[in-house]
Every structure is written in C-alpha cells, then in structure tokens.
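[audit] Reproducing an earlier prediction to check determinism. Same input, same settings, fresh worker. If the tokens differ from the archived copy the diff job will pick it up downstream; this log only records the rerun itself.
[audit] input (143 residues):
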Amino acid sequence: MSTSIHLVDGPIPAELVSRKITEYEPETSAGALAFFIGRVRDDRVDGQTVAAIEYSAYDAMVDPVIEDIDRQLRLEFPDLHLLEIIHSTGQVRCGETSLLVMVSSGHRKQSFAALEKCVELIKEKLPVWKKEIFTDGSGRWIK
C-alpha cells in the first residue's frame, strides 16, 4: 500500500479530488476505491451559527501520526493498496471540503472497513485542531 500525506491551505478543491481519482486509474490490481469527503457544517451552537472552521496543525507531528495510522491499517486490512489523506489547514467555510480520505484494496469490504477505521483514527490522533468561526465573527475552539 502506498501512502500520500497532504496538508492544504484552505478548502480542498473538487479539481484536486478528481485529479487524485484519475491518478489511481492505472492501479488495476485494486478492485475498490472508497473515499470519504468531510465538509464543514453550519451547526448551531449556543444560539450561534457556524460560518467556517479554522484548522491548525502541528506540521512536524502530522507525518509520524499518519505513518502510525498507516501501519495500524496495514496490519488490520492486509488487502489495502493505497491510503491517501488530504486535510485542510486555515479557514474553510460551510459547505466546503476539509478532509479527503481515499483507500483502495482488492475488494470493496476491506476498502469500506479500512476507510471508516481511518477516518476514526484521524479524528482521534491527527494533530489538527478546529476553531469554529460564527457568523458574528466570534469563535471557539472545539475539543
């Protein structure tokens, strides 16, 4: 399984998602390519509406944490061919994409299971923090 790790400034553009899918077309041994696209929601918090999320990352720790996630997924899902993670930093408005996770394997069941596990591990371990920005310009950090 190959791994590619990316932090991008701002929202993840649809063109990048499309390009990543196209890059893996030559991978003919993988019968399944599953992906998760995470978007910013316009949640209501204490009477305020979220307008955006500002993401901050501890850049020096992102690669080691992703490598650990990669090792864990390889052990649990031996049929994996690819893991691709792209996460936003900076401000991302409601409706825009902030996370892309792509997983490929020989068969769909492993891809779906590995994808779900990967997203949970990202949420649990990746050193990326979120600050909700409300429509009035105020904000709060999310635990």
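[audit] rerun output stored. Observation attached for the diff report: The chain has a mean pLDDT of 92.
[audit] end
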